[in-house]
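Researcher:
Attend to token order:
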Amino acid sequence: MRFKDYYDVLGVKPDASNDEIKSAYRKLARKFHPDVSKEKNAEDRFKDINEAFEALKDPERRAAFDQLRAGGYRPGDEVRPHGPFGAGGGGFEFDLGGDGGGQFSDFFESLFGRMRGGPRRSAGASMGEVRASIEIDLESAYRGGKQRISVQGARGVRTLEVKIPAGIQSGKTIRLAGQGNMGADGEPGDLLLEVKIRPHPVFALDGKDVTVNVALAPWEAALGAKVAVPTLAGEVELSIPAGSQSGRKMRLKGRGMPGKEAGDQFVVLQIQAPVPVTDADRAAYEALRAQFAGFKPRG
């Protein structure tokens, strides 16, 4: 199989911090998200970006990749990885169906296949209980539904259907009764799946609250406007008060994650000034400067 340089995919240096990696991922994910991108091969690029982020966001995975990369491999080189998470060994391997599974390359799965939802033996392991984790996208966490996972373990390969409750949060556990290992008493234990929600290219999640940045033209902020704002349930129209400043936070009550007490969505206004290109553009800015000669943006 062919070596992939995940640092190149995200456009970061090998010594990039976790925050730099996360920032690069979010920027690229917004640019190449298939639902909004006009870029050529956006879907393939989006998959590569997600794969690179999955490899580098976890310290153990990143260390294993760095160890392989230190061998002098470059993109396109033929390689047979033998890292700590390579093929072999026991335990479970999870593959989420739908949007969650089948999205990573053979190279990734050869290195980290056992890490995707790899099990952690719990105190109840003697009774056959197994703990593992699965990752879902924010939309799936919002709306809930069913996802299929394939499980490979001591009981062979099985396909299970997992019910995702609407509004579930990261860190919550879904219990699949009787789907763990066989216990010492001859009865199957439970499979406990800890849910992890992937970072989203548009929305930021904080508990049950959701935050989104919305760009405004200067005249929309100055004069007021009605703009379309994305939410997890679809677009809504938001009235922007005249005289709004960049960074202003507006609340859409109940538009966050659903539940007994629904979260809110916060809209952060970001004023974007157009770049003057023509003489007429520059003349317009000159007139604006003259009109607001007394304005002191820095106090």
Notes: The first helix runs from residue 6 to 10. The two ends are 59 Å apart (CA to CA).
